[in-house]
Amino acid sequence: MADSFSGNPLLLVSRPRELKPAVLAIDGGNSKTDVALVASDGTLLATARGPGINAHDVGVDQTVMILDAVVKQAAAQVRASRRGWVALHTVACLANADLPEEEAEHAAAVQAQGWSPTATVVNDTFAILRSGLSDRAEPHWGVAVVCGAGINAVGVAPDGRVTRYLALGTISGDWGGGYGLGLEVLWHGIRAEDGRGPATALTGYLTSHFGVERVEEITLGIHKGKIEHDELIGLAPLLLQAADDGDPIARAVVSRLADEISVMAITAMRRLDLTGQATPVILGGGVITARNPLLLDGITRQLTEAAPRTQVRVIDVPPVVGAALLGLDHVHAPAEAEARLRASYDGSA
Hints:
- It is a single chain.
- By secondary structure, the protein is α/β, with parallel strands linked by helices.
- It has helices spanning 55-58, 60-75, 100-112, 125-131, 178-194, 202-210, 215-223, 236-244, 248-271, 286-289, 293-306, 319-330, 336-344; strands spanning 23-28, 32-38, 44-51, 89-94, 118-123, 142-147, 151-156, 162-164, 280-284, 311-314.
């Protein structure tokens, strides 16, 4: 599910033409790819947006080709490059680079593009984590949970220890991303329609969304290939709206999602012995940044019950900012660079 940020921050930025990109930041998600070029003082020089990526479906080489097209869009907005490089350092935070070996494979492909002399590739959860840590204290640590098209989490301890999940879908115990929520919406909607389940407002939400008379038509459309499976991701907002409107079925699903997000964060904290500390828990992804009250209240309540000093934060900038901040950390940018970059995206998440 796409984050709510859709504007062009360049419209808000006045950049000196002599500044050169120090960081090429890439946030490659399932639903979209965001790129930013940032000077060493935190000035935002260029942005570009492209389609989502999924190396599990198309392979690493095709994934990097998609990224390269978006990078070129951003690079075309700035003038000179250094020896053909786009920037001094690239940070690519990519969905579906879930295993260390997958990060390494992506890193080799990114480095081969020659966008910069050095490059770092990590899972997109690290961008969520860094984007929610606004102080300059080192090291940056905490727990991040992302719930967009998929769901995932990462934990980083103050001493650098990292804990992660396989994040391979149902086969690795995952539930609750936008796609999974879409399946829930459809499941409850059609069961209400054919009598196997209780009545729910989701039935009407579905027929209105797809412009059909019966939910059955949606199911048959998916079965016959007339409706893409990816369209299920777009049903998550219907679920949140129905929950806001008081539908008990929708509220039960949203409450279950709060449970799932909470248990991922709490388990990560327990693995790293962080439940007794003032641990930042950073929440991101389009489902979470929609800021549904039932969802956020449920998460906050469970986290503070398990770890009373937990500091729960929902990101207020797009994840590409987190990737850029990781890059600024790498090039040892001055302290004021972070504030300058954040100001370019203020309120954009």
